Each structure stands twice: as C-alpha cells, then as structure tokens.
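Recall the central idea of this unit: under ordinary conditions, the amino acid sequence of a chain determines the structure it adopts. In this exercise we apply that idea directly, starting from the sequence alone.
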Amino acid sequence: MKLRYKLLILTLLMPCLALAATLTVKQDGSGDYAAIQAAVYAASPGDTVLVYPGRYFENIGFQTNNITLMSLEGVTGEPAYIDSTIIDGNNTDTCIRVWSDNTVIRGFSVTRGLTTGAGAGIGVQRSASIINCKVFNNTAPRGAGITISSARVFLSGVEVFDNYALYTGGGINLFSNWDVTFDPVNRCSIYNNRAGSGQDIYVQDARRDLNMPLNTFSIANPDTYHAIYLSYRSNDEIYHINFDILNAHHQELDCDIYVSPEGDDSNDGQSPETAFKTIHNAIYWAASDSLNPVTVHILPGVYSRTDNEQIFPIPLRSWVILQGSGIDATHLILEPHPVYNDGYGYIDTMFSPIKVYGATIADMKLTSRNTDSSCALSGSLGSTVDLKNIHIESFYPQYREIISLFTRSKRKMTWDNITIENIATSNDGLIKVGLGFWGSIKNSRFLNVTSTFQSASVGTQLIGIQADKSFEFENCQFSNLTLQDDDSIPIAISGMQFPQQQNHFSLRNCLFSNNYSQFGLASVVGRNNPLVDITNCTFAGNQGDNFTLQVGGNVNITNSVFYNDTPYQIREYPRYESPNDHGSITVDHSVVKDGVNGILLSPIPGSSLNFLPGSIDTDPLFLGGDDIHNPLYYSLSAASPCINTGTPDTTGLNLPPYDLAGNWRIWDGRIDMGCYEYGSEPWVSVDDPTIPHIPAVSLGVWPNPFKVFTNIKVNVPQGGLGKAENARINIYNIKGQKVKTIALDPSKAGEQFTYWDGRDSDNRLCSSGIYLLNLIVNGRNVSSKKVTLVR
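Accordingly, the structure predicted from this sequence is:
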C-alpha cells in the first residue's frame, strides 16, 4: 500500500504530466513489459522505465533523450533494491550503453558485461546521470566498469569495484573531451579494480582538473598505479586529480612479497610458504616508493595462463623490484587472453608500465606461445624500467617491438645481461625506446633475428633508440640480424635533447658480426653535434649495399676494427642545427678496410676526417674457424696486426676491465684493436685464475665463472687426438648427469680452442651451478676442469 501511494505521488510531481509516462518492467509478465530493453525502446522523452526486482540478462542501449531508468530504490530510497535489481550482461556485450542525452540510470547492480571495445558495465557517449548503482565484475579492453567518451556525466553514490580491463582503466576510463562531476555529498566509491594500467581510473585528454570526492578508494594516497591522469595533447602533468578520500579499501604490504606456482591469492604473500599465486596480485599489494622499494620474489617455476591462471599484461609499479629466481628457474610464458585474442587485433603484452619510474625486472626467462602478435614490455608516458639477467625468445613482434618504451629521460636506466634471440617478424623488431633513453645496455646479446618487413615509403629498425644525455652500449653482441627492406637498418641511435644539449653516445667492447641490410648496419646520429665514441668495437662479416656504420657529430673511433662487405665502412651523416655546426671523424689506432677510401664524408663543406698514423687498412686476420657463429670467430689470431697496436694510453676511454670474452681488457702491456684481447687470461676466476702451460695434455676454461659463454683451450701432444668419436669434451652437472658433448677436431695437434655457451644437447639453457668438463682422448678421461655457470 505504501509503495502504491509513493508511485502515485511520483507520477503527480513529474513535469509535462500530459506527455510523461511510467513504464513498468516485471519479469513475471505482470508489468507493462517483461524486458528492460523493450520498455526503453517504447519510452518517449520524459518517460520513466521502472524496473522491479530480478536478474535481467540484457544488453541495454539508449538512443532516445530524456529517459529515466530506475529500480524501486529510486522510489523508496531502500538500498536493498540495488542488490536485488540486476542488469546482467551475461558476458555477451556491454550491460548499458548510452547514445542519448539527459539519460538517468538509478538503483541497479550492473554486472557481467563483456565487450571487445570500451565500457563493459556502462558506456556513455552523450550525457547521463548515474545514481546509486553498483558496477562490478565487468570485463573489457578499456574502462571495464564505466567508460565515458566525449560525454557529460554526473556520478552520485556509485560503487565501482572488482572490474577487469585488459589494457586501461579497470574501474573507470575517461577519454576524448569528457566532462564528469562526482557528487560531493552522496559520494562514490572506486576500489579493487584491475587493469593493465590505471587499476581504478585511467583518464585521457584531460583539459581541466578533476575533483574526486570519494567515500572509499583502493588506497588512501593513490599513485599512478591506481590512477593515471593524462593532460590533453601533452604527456606533462598540466592537470591533476584532486582526491578527497574518506576511507581506504585496504592497507598495502610494506615488506617483501612472494609468488609461487603453488601459491594462492588468498594467502598473505609474506613468505614462500604463504605465497600468492599471481604476479599481478603481488604487485597490487606492494606499498613501494623511491625511499622504500618493495621486492616481489618470483619463486622457481613456470608462470602462464594455462599453468596457473596468471593475468597478463602485468602492470609494473614504480619502485617495485620484480625479482625472479634465475633465468633457468623462473619462466614466464605469455599467452592470449581467452576473449581478447589475436582474432580481434590485440597485442598480447607481458608487462605494461605506464608512468612508471624505477621499476626493475630481474632474473627470469620470458617467452610467448599461441599468439600471432606479442611483446614482452610495452609502456609509455615517461616510464623507466631497469632490466637485469633477462632471456627473451619466441616472441612475435608483428605490430609492436618486443620492448617498447617512452622514457622522457626522468631517470637513468640500466639494462644488464639481456639476451634477445631467435625472432622472426614481418613488421617491427626488438627494441624501440623513444623520447630519451638515458643510461646503458651492457653485457647483452641480440642474435638471430630476421625481419621480412618491406615498404616503398618508410623504413624500420630492429633496435631503435632515441637517446638523451648519455647512452652507451658496452660488451654487447649483435649478430645475424637480417632486414629485407631497402631503407631499414638493424641498429639506430638518434639524439633527443630535454633541454637542448650535446648528447654523448658510446659503443664500447661490442661485436657487430654477420648482419645483413641493404641500407646499412648501424647508425649513431643526433642533433646539436653529439659526441660519439666508438671504442674497441669489432664490425666484421656484415653485408650491405651502402655502409656499415653511419655517424654524425664529433666522432672518435678508437681501437676498433671495420672489415665488412659493404661499399663504405663508415659514412658521415650530420644533422645540423645551423650551417656552422659541422661534424668531424677521428680514426685512431683502428683498422678500416680500404682506409680513408672506406670512409664517406658528408658533402656539406666543413666536415673533416682525421685518419691518424696509428690506423691501418690491412686484413685483421681473425681467428676464424668452421663455425662462423662461434663468438670467438672474430677474435684475433696469433698473426693479427691488431695485437698490441691499440692506443698506448687508454686513459679516458672508460673501458671496462674485461673484453667481450670476459678476459683482461689490457694484456701483455698494451691494448689490442677490436673487442677481444689476444692471449689474455680470465679477468676473474674461482678456479685456476691463470692457465699454466702444460707440455702434455691439458684443459683450460675462461672466464670462470661465466654468464654467456666460456672459452675452452685444449693442449695435446703432437700425436693428435685420434678419431673424432674419441676426441671430445663431456660436460656433466653436479648430479653426474651428462648435459652435452663437444666434439674436437681430430686433425689438429697441439693447441686448439672451442667454447661452451651454457646450453645442453637440446639447446636449452642450463641452470646456474658447477659443471665438470672431462677431456676424453681415445676413450680415456685425460683431464678435467670445474666451471661455474652464473645466470
């Protein structure tokens, strides 16, 4: 009786009494309509669609202006009607979509919406008021709970929680000239949403500050992990969210956090025994800042969707260290989302940093499977991520590079011991870092990559870096990189200035070998005449129709080797800011094939070449061998003219103490040309720091310990090694299991060299630990040596 009278009063007070109507919806058929959408279609401007309790499996769309959709909560004020009046999208489409003006939605639970676009719970593209609704358990690529696009929206008493967005805005996504007001009296709550970035709210194209008076938010002091706010046409923080939060949904963990394949996300995550299951959840709970970084320990095992319900992409967080247990122990496998797969044109992404500073990923292997387009790390808007001891393979970078970052140079980055190998792509390549990589990439390898990309109008790069301030490659190997396009290049470093300044780019102790590109191999150029140092590098065995190295600025080439099948070894390509801003190339104690004729200067007057007397143009006489992929193929033979002919004074070259093989960088009193030092001994060793000369059979290994590969030196009497099957090195792990056999050349007597790259007989990476190398001659174990592999 009371409800009937309230409905009567509501009807009497409605404006435009002659035109407005109330259309009732009841599932039992006793109302005007049994389905909400049918009533909405029938409604005229000014009408109210009044929905009685029930679960309505519908996907509702508004196209008529001035329609009010409400549950009995709107009439009675009873919150219980919100929970009992449910619009269930049935995981087939968006629950409520508004393409009209002045729409009112009040008093509903909105759940199980699913879309391949944006806005699975509620999507508004014109204008609406959303009042006293609960929006939860919705899934979308963007804005899973509520998406507001080019719309004016008033939010009052709305709870947005437990929604998931693949990319941005788990709770709310605002973009494209929005206008949103949050009720400061009947406050909204937004909490416990998940996304690739912007867990609770992601705002694009902000043209004003956003005031958010809230009852409850996930945490009391939100950072860019929970709330991302992007100013219109700018990555700078011109506008901001002004939070006024009364309650925090949860307290984050200010301690080390653990993840295990056998864990459970209902655990506390504070010990290996009570570890979380998903990496996504562990990062969500981390309370981290620049003064107190939190480490998330990824315990040994395989982490994937199918193996243990991992959630990708994993949103990185500022000052959180994602610490694996080792390249051989922690293995992350990226797989497509079961809904948002390649058929929809989405890019499968493993890590997603947006406005993230000081994050670290360390000690793990990254691969992907069952995907046609995948990347390992894709972030933007000033993100900086340190990488250490990472092995990446089996990715498919068709629409985006394996690693793609836009850094804005706000923090120095360090990448150490990164291996990317065995990649085939028809479009993009390995690495693209834009708007200023300030820092270094050291002890890394980029191997066996083929790009079939071809275009008549644009080019691409496998490794493209826009660097700022100073950037260096040190002790890196670039081998077997192949591009088919006629104006693309495997490696390109260009300069950015924030503010304008002279950049300093360095390549030290690096090997560039067996690469192919019609256009050229590598380019190091920049505006404002950067300082470019090429020191103790070896460019050899590369092929192309133009040049091996393109440089611009004030270029110093020292102790380096250029011996390639290209018309020019070095080409000058300055990018002048003014007619008087000229570059120069100085070649000091280096080998350049064809000498000065192998260097092409810019035709712009003022460029200069200084080919100093210590430089030569003769064959460097590399060690060579049967395996051109052997890292030591381009080391120096005993007859090489590069031995002890580097600069007498290495002061100021900022060289590391070891060469590319891990041996002493300066040996026998003077440095050699190129990335390898002839006859040098290991820089560090835990077993036999020097290899003594033994006239009979001997076995030596260095470096020891090693990360990438260890050299093996065998010395036998003049009688030779006998038959091939009786001349070998057997490698055993600490359990006594044989992991690999390396055959030796039976025709060679005396001294010969080989290497072990830390892989087993199936080409899989071996785990860290101690291994035993047994030299077998004519069926007898004649010498043994222990070696330590460190991942």
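The first helix runs from residue 2 to 13.
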